[in-house]
Design goal:
heterodimer, A: mainly alpha, MetI-like fold, 13 helices, B: alpha+beta, D-Maltodextrin-Binding Protein, domain 2, Dipeptide-binding Protein, domain 3, 2 domains, four-stranded antiparallel β-sheet, 17 helices, 19 strands, 32% helix, globular, disordered N terminus
């Protein structure tokens, strides 16, 4: 199995170079002059613009810019954005916020999602099942920003259970409400996947055999059925963790959490290549890593799956 | 939460405000978007000004009527409007205890005006003699000088500033945040200075700039100027969404918000009552014509288009009636604004407009309307304008060109637009010159409009010492620009903000001075 892990990790190297170049090129291809855009409509003399373009290598062709960026990266320098702020400093604080938010949302999905799924799966066709199906359909149908604003106004403004916005109250208080909003969509999918998969497996031959052998109900469901049923759920949770890390722009905006999603969104608008590449590259690496972990988990859940 | 704040502030008023207390003790919070820089010369962003105007005392500041009055200066005077003698008030200190002298201003201005430093407000020093030598036009030339030859430190508290041309508005220019002084420590490490500026103003930084979160300011105990704070400090919180800032204001976790999203204004007026902040701003919207396209060369066509724009109707439909339909090229907060200077040319009159339109020979081809995606309201009012052009002037082919905000000004600078475009101007300092010369002057304007008479009147006004006479001359120049109408004035923006009942005496000026933080009282 270790050879498999090493091979997978080695595969990350070309992916790393590919994505950085690709993203750098895409940001490069965006129209507009980022330095000019910084000044808005106020006059900036040509020689100052030139100085700034030189400082950030914007006069160089794409490949030279990219090479300079990679050379900096090799020395551990992620570069600067166009107001002279170091990218590693900018992103450092933001990763902490994003990681807290994503983890909160992900744990919410994992614990509540699987619990609801099991509850509905064991009571297929009964009231519990209908409730879970109906509730999750509703959540999937409502856009996240509607959910976010409603939650903020009801729980933050009117009932004052949670802070309305910001990170002042730290983890977990500041992250609970946004985490639940962010995780609600994933939770719906996790609950439905668990429910269907479990309901399906409960009718399988091996479950009947286990029951016939006189195993306790808890053991039949917990040890045999649920474990088998979790393979699609784990796949989904793995992929979704990556999504939560990078795709929380709307939630971060509503709850004023200075996370990575917002930064990438802003930086794309400002054409800040080094920031976008820095953030997205880390995201890609997280995706690769999480997927590796997911693949390894298959083997734990289903011993028939082995990696060479 | 509210109870805690109240208890803490009660405790404060009881003991008369001594010693270190909790964070909410005698301080208040204000919300805005994240600033780009805190080094005064490196920014033209009003979010930066929010903070900078509290950290620094410029030589001059603005009174409530928008007139320049001395702040860190004792006097600013000139006989010929070209050579200015500035006396700095002695005994002032920076937050690090360094003395504020004439040299502190000279150092800051030299640093700002030196091209290779790449300062964002570099252009604001172009009035001063020697600027050219520091900012060569030729691409490969090295600057010949690294100090402004026009700025001479006569003695510890006296500066003599020589300008390129006589410029009577110089005292107003001195109110612009970029003209703030800098201590030696700032020059030594400009990067650290940007993170944690050391100013000479009523407030100083309390810790580092917490990017995208907040900037904490506390009252500076060594402050000797006239802006002594009536509170213990202010924390500027950064918001990425205006809606969220408003929700925080409603929840009481934010004390002052200068901009409430327009969709929430009707609700806010009800909820906040007398704590709703309103007023006219110094930002005015225009519709410019690319005169280099000869289809727009006929003044009557431009006048006709101005007269089919229903400013009042658009104000009601798009801005809840809160904006101020333009009746002049200048907002009413600018000294020199005349009511109804634009007259019938800014009055909705479709019949008269059609007459002028026909006289001009109509319009051939597709009319393209340009605006950016910075605000959704731009598209809304452009649609109303287009309908009016179609219905009243019979221009059938109209297309909208919505351009990403980051590209918009680059496009206009490259003169790539093929039709009327939206444009606005926000006052740097309240002078007609700031609007007229920047937006209509032959060297600066974007329309490709040229009027020698206009330029000469502006130059003459710039030479005139008497402000009233100067304003008269600016107004004459304004009349020419109205008559020729290369750019149509539309409406002036309205400030719509609010504050919590935790604070009182909240004043937001329409100038770069913004919120007068030092005057805010905390309950």
């Amino acid at each position: 199995m270790w050879r498999y892990v090493v091979r997978r990790l080695l595969q990350a190297v070309p992916v790393f170079f590919g994505t950085t170049l690709l993203i750098y090129a895409m940001v490069f291809a965006l129209p507009g002059d980022p330095i000019q855009a910084l000044a808005g409509d106020k006059p900036v003399p040509e020689n100052v613009l030139r100085t700034l373009r030189d400082r950030y290598n914007l006069n160089d062709p794409l490949l030279v810019q990219y090479a300079k960026y990679m050379w900096g990266l090799a020395q551990g320098d992620l570069g600067e954005n166009y107001t002279g702020q170091s990218v590693s400093e900018m992103l450092g604080g933001r990763w902490a916020v994003t990681a807290r938010l994503a983890l909160t949302a992900w744990l919410f999905e994992l614990v509540i999602g699987i619990a609801l799924g099991v509850w509905a799966g064991l009571r297929r066709g009964r009231l519990a099942d209908t409730l879970v199906l109906g509730g999750t359909t509703l959540v999937i149908a409502v856009p996240v920003f509607v959910l976010g604003y409603i939650a903020q106004i009801v729980f933050g403004l009117h009932w004052q259970i949670f802070p309305t916005a910001g990170t002042e109250d730290g983890w977990p208080m500041s992250y609970l409400l946004p985490g639940i909003v962010l995780g609600s969509l994933g939770l719906s999918y996790v609950a439905r996947l668990t429910r269907t998969s479990l309901a399906e497996n409960l009718r399988a031959d091996y479950v009947r055999t286990a029951r016939a052998k006189g195993l306790s109900k808890a053991r039949v469901i917990g040890r045999h059925t649920l474990r088998n049923s979790l393979i699609p759920v784990v796949t989904y949770l793995g992929v979704d963790f990556g999504n939560l890390m990078g795709g929380a722009i709307v939630t971060e905006g509503i709850f004023n959490l200075p996370g990575v999603g917002q930064q990438v969104f802003q930086s794309i608008q400002l054409k800040e290549g080094p920031v976008v590449v820095g953030a997205v590259t880390v995201l890609v690496l997280i995706f690769l890593l999480v997927n590796l972990v997911v693949d390894l988990l298959y083997g734990v859940l289903d011993p028939r799956i082995r990696y060479e | 939460m509210a109870a805690v704040v109240l208890a803490a502030s009660l405790g404060l008023s009881a003991c008369g405000g001594g010693g270190d207390a909790g964070a909410s003790d005698g301080t208040f919070t204000a919300g805005h978007s994240e600033p780009d820089h805190l080094m005064p010369a490196n920014t033209t962003s009003s979010y930066s000004f929010d903070v900078i105007s509290e950290l620094f005392d410029n030589l001059m500041t603005l009174d409530r009527e928008g007139r320049a009055v001395p702040l860190a200066a004792e006097s600013v005077a000139s006989d010929d409007q070209k050579v200015w003698t500035i006396k700095v008030k002695p005994g002032q200190k920076f937050h690090n205890d360094e003395a504020v002298t004439a040299q502190s201003f000279a150092d800051a201005w030299n640093h700002a005006a030196y091209g290779p430093n790449g300062m964002g407000a570099n252009d604001y020093f172009s009035h001063i003699e020697g600027y050219g030598a520091m900012n060569p036009e030729d691409e490969n030339a090295e600057p010949e000088a690294d100090t402004l030859s026009g700025v001479e430190v006569v003695d510890e508290n006296t500066l003599e500033v020589t300008l390129n041309h006589p410029f009577s508005q110089f005292p107003l220019l001195l109110t612009y945040p970029a003209y703030a002084p800098m201590p030696k420590a700032g020059l030594k490490d400009p990067k650290a200075f940007d993170e944690r500026p050391i100013g000479n103003g009523p407030y100083m930084m309390d810790g580092e700039w917490e990017r995208n979160k907040q900037i904490k300011l506390v009252a500076f105990p060594g402050y000797t100027g006239p802006r002594k704070p009536k509170n213990k400090g202010v924390t500027w919180k950064s918001y990425s969404s205006a809606d969220t800032a408003y929700t925080d204001l409603r929840a009481g976790s934010l004390d002052v918000l200068q901009t409430i999203p327009s969709g929430k204004v009707p609700e806010a007026e009800k909820v906040f009552g007398d704590r709703f902040i309103t007023g006219e701003m110094g930002t005015i919207d225009y519709l410019g014509f690319p005169l280099f396209d000869k289809r727009f060369a006929e003044p009557d066509l431009r006048r006709a288009i101005s007269m089919v724009i229903d400013r009042e109707g658009i104000n009601k439909a798009v801005y809840n009636g809160a904006y101020f339909p333009a009746d002049s090229l200048l907002p009413s907060i600018i000294p020199g604004h005349r009511d109804n200077a634009c007259g019938e040319l800014c009055t909705y009159d479709p019949a008269k407009a059609k007459e002028l339109f026909d006289k001009a020979g109509g319009f051939e081809g597709t009319l393209e309307l340009y605006f950016s995606n910075a605000q959704p309201t731009y598209a809304q009012w452009m649609r109303i304008v287009a309908n009016s052009l179609r219905d009243n002037l019979g221009i059938q082919e109209i297309e909208f060109r919505q351009v990403p905000a980051s590209d918009y000004f680059s496009m206009l600078r490259a003169r790539e637009e093929k039709g009327p475009y939206r444009q606005n101007w926000e006052a740097d300092y309240p002078s007609p010159q700031n609007y007229l010369e920047n937006m209509w002057g032959s060297d600066n304007n974007r329309m490709g409009w040229k009027s020698e008479e206009f330029d000469e009147l502006i130059a003459e006004a710039n030479r005139t010492a008497d402000q009233q006479k100067a304003i008269g001359l600016y107004n004459r120049a304004e009349d020419i620009a109205i008559e020729e109408m290369p750019m149509i004035p539309l409406w002036t923006w309205a400030r719509q903000g609010g504050h919590s009942d935790n604070v009182g005496n909240v004043t937001v000026t329409p100038y770069a001075t913004g919120l007068l933080a030092h005057e805010v009282t905390v309950k």
